[in-house]
Amino acid sequence: MKSITKHLLSICASILFVSQAMGQGNNYNQDYTKYDGLALTPPMGWNSWNKFACNIDEKLIKEIADDFVKSGMKDAGYTYINLDDCWHGDRDSLGFIHPDPKRFPSGMKALADYVHSKGLKIGVYSDAGSQTCGGRPGSRGYEFQDAMMYAKWGVDYLKYDWCNTDGLKAEGAYKTITAALKKAGRPIVLSICEWGNDKPWIWGPKVGHLWRTTGDIYNCFDCVEDHGTWKSLGVMQILDKQAGLRQYAGPGHWNDPDMLEVGNGMAVNEDRAHFAMWAMIAAPLIAGNDLRSMSQQTIDILTNKDVIAVNQDSLGIQGYQYSVKDKLETWFKPLMNGEWAVCFLNRNSNPQTINFDWNQQGLTDTLSKRTIDVKAGDYNMRNLWTKKNAGNTKKSLKAIVPAHDVLMFRLTRK
Ligand code: GLA
């Protein structure tokens, strides 16, 4: 009896010892959850890459911030000014990253203060690997230090790329930067940029606020650009790659079909179609052009408040392709309060005629279970590009969609 009690006591003592030891030695649980409540609608902003690539400095960024306000971009809802690749200088002897001292002589904190003073937010770029795609220092092994630095500067948005990541698993690598940002204590939007390689739409919603679904966009409406070891995709090619992904998007977590090429050289109708489709698929609206020298046509596209309202609708349901015939596509997007956006996209190089009878169609979205129910009452239609009343759904819609262009409407119950 005595020996059993002794034995039991010694087991209890060992359990106590082990649990104490575990408690002392490993009491830090990494928090891999992203900051919630950011990006409840698709983020809107500007990024330097599409137009300026590595050619960025503080003068440019300040001018862009000034023009955000002057051009009406800020009023239209654009908020983030994001520095892409190549802002980096070296790490110091302790491993902390600093901006390129020639291009950013006043430092990042001063630049962030300037951007914040305009009522805007600032973003930076890094990479999960040893080096960024542009060969600058990557964050691998420095994730917590980098996040601390971004928080100290006042950064609000981080685009985190995927070059030079041999041997890394995407989900784990992105979770590490998420944990680092959380630990640094400043709410920062995390833009996952691993090009859709490892299905980020599956694991991304908990880890970041948006995830690239494809490789890089190219400034053409309908082409593939071959760079030898990799290819970039035109606007239509990117759009096609969004098929099957809409169920993964919603408030706080978005599919990212890459930044806008509006104002970078496509024809005005193509820019309009590009912007309209990014609005329909609830894509982040990150302009990629030179805001200091925009044509009026470009301003009118980027700041079209009706089209932006479709993108920013608080239901956060990504639109879908309803039908395709002869390269004429019909897209729908359910909106708050039973409203709908509809967009006819003509991918053909000739104009196409629409004859759309609202009564003949079975207009139920199987994902959201919402219906355009014309039997229960007609909808008024507003043309979102001409800003004109376009009748109602009682009559068939008869119209012509010019080549590489869209017709886009908002349907509201009468
Ligand atoms: C990758 C990204 C681009 C851009 C460049 C910068 O290609 O996908 O969006 O950030 O790197 O080097």
Can I get a quick summary?
This protein is α/β, with parallel strands linked by helices and 414 residues long.
Describe the model.
This protein has 414 residues and is an alpha/beta fold. The protein folds into 2 domains: 44-311, TIM Barrel (Alpha-Beta Barrel), CATH 3.20.20.70; 320-413, Golgi alpha-mannosidase II (Immunoglobulin-like, Sandwich). It has 12 helices and 22 strands. The protein has helices spanning 2-25, 49-52, 58-70, 73-76, 107-117, 143-153, 170-184, 200-207, 235-240, 268-280, 296-302, 305-311, and strands spanning 44-47, 80-82, 88-91, 97-99, 121-127, 157-161, 189-192, 210-212, 224-226, 231-233, 254-256, 285-287, 320-325, 328-334, 340-346, 352-356, 364-365, 370-371, 379-383, 388-392, 397-401, 405-413. An 8-stranded parallel β-sheet has the order 11-8-7-6-5-2-1-12. Strands 13-14-15-22-19-20 form a 6-stranded antiparallel β-sheet, with helices on one face. A hairpin with a 4-residue loop joins strand 17 (364-365) and strand 18. The radius of gyration is 25 Å and the shape is globular. The chain binds alpha-D-galactopyranose. Residues 49, 84-85, 132-134, 161, 193, 216 line the site of alpha-D-galactopyranose. Alpha-D-galactopyranose is lined by residues 49, 84-85, 132-134, 161, 193, 216.
- Main pleated-sheet profile: 8 strands, parallel
Helix content: 25-40%
CATH topology of the largest domain: TIM Barrel
Structural class: alpha/beta
Cα-to-Cα separation, first versus last residue: 87 Å
**Overall geometry:** globular
Q: What characteristics describe this protein?
A:
Immunoglobulin-like; 24% strand; globular; eight-stranded parallel β-sheet; binds alpha-D-galactopyranose; six-stranded antiparallel β-sheet; 22 strands; 414 residues; TIM Barrel; 30% helix; alpha/beta
